[in-house]
Specification:
Blueprint lengths: L8 E6 L6 H15 L5 E6 L5 H8 L5 E4 L16 H6 L4 E4 L2 H7 L3 H13 L3 E6 L3 H5 L3 H13 L3 H4 L3 E4 L13 H17 L6 E5 L4 H8 L6 E4 L6 H15 L7 H23 L6 H4 L17 H26 L83 H5 L2 H6 L1
Parallel strand pairs: 1-2, 1-8, 2-3, 3-4, 4-5, 5-6, 6-7, 7-8
The structure holds phosphoenolpyruvate (PEP).
């Protein structure tokens, strides 16, 4: 039940379009004060652009870093409303969210554009947090992994050198702001798939965060999954205590004294103790002892009695019973920690009829999908088995034609040209349909 990896834990708050100078002041003070006690976890917040100055001032010198909710793929110029990487550098932004589902859905961002934004962030030494996630319709039609693969493809095509400097956030669209959380198992299934793709290209240590109605109550069970390295938090990030409790839950599950065998071990000890109590009580029966005196008391009313009448059997019974109660309490606690996720998440595994890519045999995506990909930099596992034609979702109606003519990144590329031109022209659902 502990995380099986050694990747640094990361919890990022996405404030979305919330906040004001006054409200931020209170929130930032709470986060700053509380964060001093958090270890083994990187904590960051992403306010709206106008508040970056306030946030950078309030958090300067603390362990909490900050980032933006978007970044322009352009360096500068006539791009009204856009904010460039160099502008973010002026505020010491460490992170930039790219491809959040709200931007994909409401602003028609394609995966190709997302890759360009990730590249632009890296050009300015800002870590892009690349968000991917399926809609409820995608999941119900069995297209989850195909959609994730399609969203990731242009990003992974940037090559291992760049991908190794990114963070990926898996955020099922149906879980964002809805109160529905993927069960830890559902999230892990997708995270494992993403990890396989990263591993295949030599980027297995990239942090993969989960996002979607994460709260203090469900964080620990999500973080207990081996491929979940932290969380991208929306609503719960607007309350300092709740946000910090999420980071603390993460920290708690990082303790080495919470090994994965603890739960089965406690279960075995509890069962042995239960049988032990029964046997010890039975051994004392027929000797004039009732239930109470089995525990050393003079009557049933003096369980664990302190009458001084204890003999070997009654003392043994007492201690075995104590072990039973302690293991029961431990199991109840661990069970409670692991059951924080929503019961209402869509049911069903993803793997039905799905053939997982073999990480040992990475297959480069078709050249047509990634024109201009850096030489030797592309190593993407084979796409999932294509869904039945009848189950292919329609292309999102929100993708504007403008997305198809996204200009190239203007800033000089240190590693490679963007590998995403064609990819930028297709929505994820269209690519899945292909
Ligand atoms: C998000 O916006 O990235 C998010 C995960 O939101 P919420 O936690 O509110 O679902």
């Amino acid at each position: 039940m502990t995380t099986a990896n050694t990747r640094q834990r990361l919890v990022i708050g996405n404030w979305k379009m919330n906040g004001s100078l006054a409200a931020n002041e209170v929130l930032l003070k709470g986060i700053r004060d509380g964060s001093a006690a958090i270890e083994n976890c990187t904590v960051a917040v992403c306010p709206s652009f106008p508040y970056l100055a306030q946030v950078s001032q309030a958090l300067s010198g603390s362990s909490v870093s900050w980032g933006s909710q978007d970044i322009s793929p352009e360096a500068s110029g006539a791009f009204t409303g856009e904010v460039s990487g160099s502008m973010l550098n002026d505020f010491n932004c460490a992170w930039a969210l790219v491809g959040h589902s709200e931007r994909r859905a409401l602003h028609g961002e394609t995966s190709g554009q997302v890759a360009k934004k990730a590249q632009a962030a890296l050009l300015h030494e800002i870590t892009p947090v690349v968000c991917v996630g399926e809609t409820l319709q995608d999941r119900e039609q069995g297209n989850t992994l195909a959609v994730i693969q399609s969203q990731l493809a242009p990003v992974l095509a940037l090559g291992a050198q760049m991908v190794n400097k990114m963070v990926i956030a898996y955020e099922p669209v149906w879980a964002i702001g809805t109160g529905l959380t993927a069960t830890p198992e559902q999230a892990q299934e997708v995270h494992a798939y993403i990890r396989a793709q990263l591993t295949a290209m030599g980027a297995e240590n990239v942090q993969v965060l989960y996002g979607g109605s994460v709260k203090a109550a469900n964080a620990a069970s999500l973080f207990a999954m081996p491929d979940i390295d932290g969380a991208l938090v929306g609503g719960a990030a607007l309350v300092a205590e709740e946000f910090l409790n999420i980071a603390t839950a993460l920290y708690f599950w990082s303790f080495t004294f919470m090994p994965s065998y603890l739960y089965p071990l406690l279960t075995v000890v509890q069962v042995i103790a239960a049988f032990g109590v029964i046997v010890l009580v039975l051994l004392q029966q027929g000797k004039g002892a009732d239930m109470g005196s089995s525990f050393g008391g003079g009557s049933a009313g003096s369980l664990f009695g302190a009458t001084g009448a204890a003999n070997f059997f009654s003392r043994a019974t007492k201690w075995v019973a104590v072990v039973f109660f302690i293991t029961t309490a431990g199991l109840a606690y661990l069970g409670n920690m692991a059951s924080g996720s929503s019961q209402q998440a869509p049911s069903g595994g993803l793997m039905e009829g799905y053939q997982a890519p073999n990480p040992a045999l990475p297959v480069a995506p078709p050249a047509s999908a990634v024109p201009g990909a850096p030489e030797g930099g592309v190593s993407v596992p084979a796409a999932p088995v294509a869904p039945a034609a009848s189950s292919v979702p329609a292309a999102p109606a929100t993708a504007p034609a403008a997305a198809e003519t996204a200009p190239e990144v203007v800033a000089p590329a240190p590693e490679a040209a963007p590998a995403t031109e064609n990819a930028a022209e297709a929505t994820d659902s269209e690519k899945v349909a292909e």
